[in-house]
Amino acid sequence: MERVTIGERIRERRAELGMGQGRLAVKVNQLAGLTSGGLTRNEISRYERGLRKPHDWLPLIARALGVSIGWLTGAPAPPSLALADALAQLEQDLGMMIDRRTFLTDTSGLALSVLPSGVPSSKAVPPEAVTYFRRRLDDLWRADAAQSPRRLVPTATAQFQIVAHLASNSHGDLRRRLWQTAAAFTGLITWLHQDAGQLDQASAWGTRTLELAHRAHDKQLVAHALTNRAMVDMDLGDGPTTVEMASAALADEKRLCAKVKVQALQQAAHGHALVGDRRACDQLLDRAGRLVDRIDDDHPWGVATRTPLYLEIQRATCYSRMRLGAEAVRLWDQVMPSAEWRSSGVFAARQAAALADSRRPDEAVAALEAAVHVAEKVESARLRQELTTAWERLAPWHQASHGQEVRALFDGIGLPITP
């Protein structure tokens, strides 16, 4: 796997902060006590393009970006640093002050902030906070389309901690909407841990999402949380439990909005695919298909339903799980042109498995090459598992040239495979 460069880290962090290269240069020069000369925007551009290395400027660039030198050189940003950054940005954007000593959490990262005596009254929490954090949530979902989940977990967790703190210091409708937003963040964190292959953490955060959804008295969010839990069970390969959790989400179906119904129906379809029930799988996806055009809500979660060809992606995945070969290949051929770059790796690996089932090894290897190209750039346990599955489907060709090609591809990203 290619190592992330210092320049890429500088660019990534600037983007998170909404800071231009010129602004970064000014901030670094201020920290250095320089009123003229010093670091320039063009020099930062050279760093980000890998043409030069910061060397002596590195400590000041790290301070200006609010990260450690270790993070800039490749280590993940610690959650405490992400929280400090998020608090500083909130204070700047909303003009409110928060006592940072209140943000004490247990080692699991799931405890709410410990509230001190003399906390600000609810009037200190502006109603604009809900809109502000829902925008941050949208930003994180967009970032998920391009970045590795482990990089986003500290930022998402820090945002959740602040929202939970604000909710605890509010009441009435504002309190309820803040708890809804907090639950939306825990839903995202559940997904990030799941994508990183940390299923125990995903389960814990999924439970937290369900708790907060009930706390917010939001039936839509409760059903969404149950669907999230079904998704974790799906990754565990537990078809019956996936069906049960998705069915629980649909228990009060008449009162659910179209988005939640679609989410639950397609997740139930995955559960039936895991147990090999194609008829039930198709029926559920067909039901979901009749609802997609009715998705018009602004719930800050479940953005995947807005993806072009969303249900075709789900059906193609289900058909790959059931090893339907040519039918799965036909669907993947339709889906691939619409895939976002990061998702395209997972889809290409699933397409490769379907091509192998259709006894088209040359094309399967080509699809795996595309998937590996994405895996070189992003750290996704889900993608690596899909690559392993595709390799298993290529078993008849393991000793042929096709197998040698795939071994070489997987060696390049350090992915171990069975002989």
UniProtKB/TrEMBL annotation:
Record InterPro entries: Cro/C1-type_HTH (IPR001387), Lambda_DNA-bd_dom_sf (IPR010982), TPR-like_helical_dom_sf (IPR011990)
SMART domains: HTH_XRE (SM00530)
Positions of the HTH cro/C1-type domain: 38-72
Source organism superkingdom: Bacteria
Protein name in the entry: HTH cro/C1-type domain-containing protein
